[in-house]
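Quick one, tokens below:
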């Protein structure tokens, strides 16, 4: 387990994370600190705890919106896959019908050619 010191709202916190995840954790802390700074800019000094709670709610709102978009994209992806399967099946049917008609035409051409060939 790796140890990382992150600064949020001017306070340093020592946190543990999986090895190799230090940069990711630092980035998350930086984003949270940025949200708190943004709120402080909008509302002024309203208390550390309140700013932190508001930032957490903002983060949860972003997460909820991202999850909503993911579900929408998953549904769209399922629909596109189903459409793809239907299109492939339709194409296969059309190709089979074309092949059947070509065979009929070839047989008809062969019959016509046989009927006009001189008989010895």
């Amino acid at each position: 387990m790796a140890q990382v010191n992150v600064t949020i709202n001017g306070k340093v916190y020592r946190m543990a994370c999986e090895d190799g995840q230090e940069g990711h954790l630092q980035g998350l802390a930086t984003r949270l600190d940025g949200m708190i700074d943004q709120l402080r800019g909008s509302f002024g000094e309203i208390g550390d705890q309140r700013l932190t709670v508001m930032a957490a709610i903002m983060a949860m709102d972003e997460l909820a919106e991202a999850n909503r978009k993911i579900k929408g994209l998953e549904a769209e992806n399922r629909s596109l896959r189903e459409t793809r399967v239907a299109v492939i099946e339709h194409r296969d049917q059309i190709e089979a019908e074309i092949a059947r008609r070509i065979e009929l035409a070839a047989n008809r051409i062969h019959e016509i050619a046989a009927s006009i060939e001189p008989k010895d």
